[in-house]
């Protein structure tokens, strides 16, 4: 089975049970899921320290590129959170050819986190259910993590790396730490619960050395150019 589209781009394949087609919110390219706060924030702001207008993170390519790479996996239905309880009303039809979770979340027992910084004796870790199987092209794994730079979300999804070129015929669910205990309200259907980023499996070796004289001159020249020309990385180095 090919993992390439007609225009020869590599493709991540998302599949769901046929009775859920059209009912589940679909995974989307991360560049289509930019949050409203990023869209509305200014590109420059006055710096009291520098006494001038400086660029905000909205004009920082590495910050934006991290947020817009890969795909976002959506929450399958609204979650209502109130007084320590999470409730939902999900329209998943009964029956079907295969068994799959009918609820949007379940829980990890806190004992699984014993010895980790996330352990709290009186709290569970939630697990978001994802009803899409996910297939990566041959030779690629997928790095699943919290939606990048989404500090506004009341939970933090734990990170994991899955060999989705091989493990492609079952569900991948996402454990998450609900850190905002004061949250009250609705976490809406479609909220990104995880970001998946393709990672090609390759062997890597680390090399360390001191600058040569020529390398030191190049570092100094680039450092000076970056000071002279705001936005230079975006214009000359960004792929």
Automatic annotation (TrEMBL):
This is DUF2169 domain-containing protein. It comes from Bradyrhizobium campsiandrae.
């Amino acid at each position: 089975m090919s993992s390439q589209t007609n225009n020869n781009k590599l493709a991540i394949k998302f599949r769901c049970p046929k009775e859920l087609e059209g009912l589940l919110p679909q995974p989307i390219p991360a560049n289509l899921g930019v949050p409203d706060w990023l869209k509305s924030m200014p590109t420059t702001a006055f710096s009291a320290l520098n006494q001038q207008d400086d660029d905000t993170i909205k004009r920082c390519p590495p910050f934006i590129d991290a947020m817009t790479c890969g795909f976002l996996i959506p929450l399958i239905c609204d979650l209502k959170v109130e007084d320590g309880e999470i409730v939902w009303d999900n329209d998943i039809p009964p029956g079907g050819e295969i068994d799959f979770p009918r609820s949007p979340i379940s829980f990890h027992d806190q004992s699984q986190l014993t010895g980790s910084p996330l352990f709290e004796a009186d709290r569970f870790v939630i697990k978001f259910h994802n009803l899409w199987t996910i297939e990566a092209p041959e030779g690629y794994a997928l790095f699943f993590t919290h939606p990048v730079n989404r500090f506004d979300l009341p939970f933090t999804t734990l990170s994991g790396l899955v060999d989705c070129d091989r493990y492609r015929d079952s569900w991948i669910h996402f454990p998450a730490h609900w850190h905002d205990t004061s949250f009250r309200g609705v976490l809406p259907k479609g909220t990104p619960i995880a970001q998946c980023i393709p990672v090609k499996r390759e062997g890597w070796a680390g090399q360390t050395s001191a600058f040569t004289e020529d390398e030191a001159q190049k570092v100094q020249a680039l450092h000076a150019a970056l000071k002279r020309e705001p936005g230079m990385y975006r214009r000359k180095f960004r792929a």
